[in-house]
Write a structure and sequence with these properties.
Oligomer: heterodimer
CATH class of chain A: Alpha Beta
Largest interface: A-B, 39 and 41 residues
Strand order of the largest sheet of chain A: 1-2-6-7-8-5
Number of helices of chain A: 4
Strand content of chain A: 25-35%
Number of helices of chain B: 5
CATH topology of chain A: Thiol Ester Dehydrase, Chain A
Structural class of chain B: alpha+beta
Number of strands of chain A: 8
Distance between the termini of chain B: 17 Å
Distance between the termini of chain A: 20 Å
Order of helices and strands of chain B: HHHEEEEHEEEEH
Shape of chain A: globular
Radius of gyration of chain B: 16 Å
Strand order of the largest sheet of chain B: 1-2-6-7-8-5
Structural class of chain A: alpha+beta
Helix content of chain B: 25-40%
Chain lengths: 153, 162
């Protein structure tokens, strides 16, 4: 393992927010869920899932479907990996994801940020947090692994 | 199935009135989920292939989140039918392992089994596959909090209103 592998702060952005957004816009399921990206406050990227009636799981509460929140967390991880990956590679492939549901998702927009904990040659370890009004009150978190594209993959 | 004059159980209703169950969950309806089969504590849920589910436009493979959603929703039904009475169900934790990409164009079955219920928590295992459960697309382990809020599972609430 090299020092660059171990230290996520070494990961320099390789794609702009607009470039990542264009990639997301080409993914039908992300369009269906209403997922897009914005510039983060510190030069990072923030994923957003716009609220829409098609993502409601519990109509009585009402609340967003846990599966849609899971899909959003997975997408937010892909977003960050894409941001720090050179253009031209394939999309990162999920290997596993462990999601903790902390609060029900209300009928408003949801946001997420991802920290790449470890960027290896083939596998990336990520931590993701999703929130609605207040980043300090996450509604769900996830950690997991993605296979990253190599040109020969 | 229930005897005449006897109140039908939730699992009877789930099996007999599949569309009612799906139509009470807007996201499940938007994704075209249908209950293939159900037993107490076990559910087989299907998502038909649809181009809008694609997560990788280069390969046509559906998004992993579709599989997560299928298994989470199936588990909600399985836990509801494992419980002796209607209670609210909230997903606490869901781990998913992706073994192989789904084949473009094929439907996916999510099979889940609620293998343990305690006073406050239900435990579930599940698998997603096309044809052969022994050749999984993904497997999952989940825990659910019981009685965490005042609402019934929307499916159960819909059944109770009938």
């Amino acid at each position: 393992m090299s020092a660059a592998d171990a230290d996520p702060s070494q990961a320099r952005p390789q794609r702009t927010t607009a470039e990542v957004r264009a990639l997301l816009d080409a993914i039908p399921y992300c369009r269906f869920l209403g997922i897009t990206v914005d510039d983060g406050p510190d030069g990072g990227i923030v994923s957003r899932m716009r609220f829409g009636p098609q993502i409601v799981g519990n109509a009585a509460l009402p609340a967003i479907h846990g599966g849609a929140i899971g899909a959003f967390l997975e997408t937010a991880a892909i977003v960050e990996v894409l941001r720090i990956s050179p253009a031209g590679g394939a999309l990162p492939k999920p290997v596993d994801l462990t999601i903790a549901y902390l609060r029900s998702g209300r009928t408003v927009d949801t946001f997420a940020r991802t920290i790449v904990t470890k960027h290896g040659r083939r596998v990336v370890n990520v931590r993701v947090e999703a929130w609605q009004d207040d980043p300090a009150r996450p509604i769900a978190t996830a950690q997991g692994h993605f296979l990253v594209a190599r040109d020969d993959a | 199935m229930s005897e005449p004059g006897e109140a039908p159980s939730l699992v009877d209703l789930v099996v007999e009135r599949k569309n009612l169950l799906v139509s009470s969950v807007p996201h499940a309806m938007a994704l075209g989920f249908t209950v293939v089969d159900a037993k107490p504590g076990e559910t087989w849920l299907k998502v038909p292939f649809d181009p809008k589910l694609v997560g990788n436009p280069a390969t046509g493979v559906i998004h992993g989140g579709v599989i997560t959603t299928l298994l989470d929703n199936a588990a909600g039904v399985a836990v509801a039918t494992a419980l002796p009475e209607l209670r609210s169900i909230a997903t606490l934790d869901l781990r998913i392992d992706y073994m192989k990409p789904a084949t473009p164009g094929l439907d996916v079955i999510g099979y889940v089994r609620c293998y343990k219920v305690t006073r406050h928590v239900a435990f579930v295992h599940g698998t997603a596959y096309h044809e052969d459960p022994n050749d999984p697309i993904a497997t999952t382990a989940m825990t659910f909090m019981l009685g965490a809020n005042r609402t019934l599972p929307s499916a159960a609430a819909a059944l109770e209103r009938k």
